Prior knowledge:
By secondary structure, this protein is mainly α. It has one helix at about 1-115. The chain is rod-shaped, with a radius of gyration of 55 Å. Helix content is about 90%, strand content about 0%.
Amino acid sequence: PFAQTTIDHTEQALHKHVAALLAETDAALAAIKSKEAQVVAEAQCAIEEASSRLGAAQDASTSAQNAWVDADARVTGLKSDKLAQQREDASAKLEAARAAEETFRAMVAAFEASTAPPTNPGDAPAAHET
């Protein structure tokens, strides 16, 4: 009887202790799961924010690169067009200047011919003596 009572009492204590340990284990697992869920949710939010920032940065980079390419193409086009236009303008101005020079030289020659004294004294009209 004493031994049986001791064994029964020990078994009850053991069952209570095992039950308490199981309860603590369940509580610890629940706390771990709760903390894990919280950390996972925070990590997902951080990932979404980082992904959003990355997308925005990539979009901005792409837009900046496209703008640079467009500007570079325009500059190249302007250089090419401008040089061709300048060449044409310079050529036209040169031709106009040459034509103006020829006209000027012809006018100078005509003026000099009309105001030059005759080269032979016999060709000159007779001077009237008074």
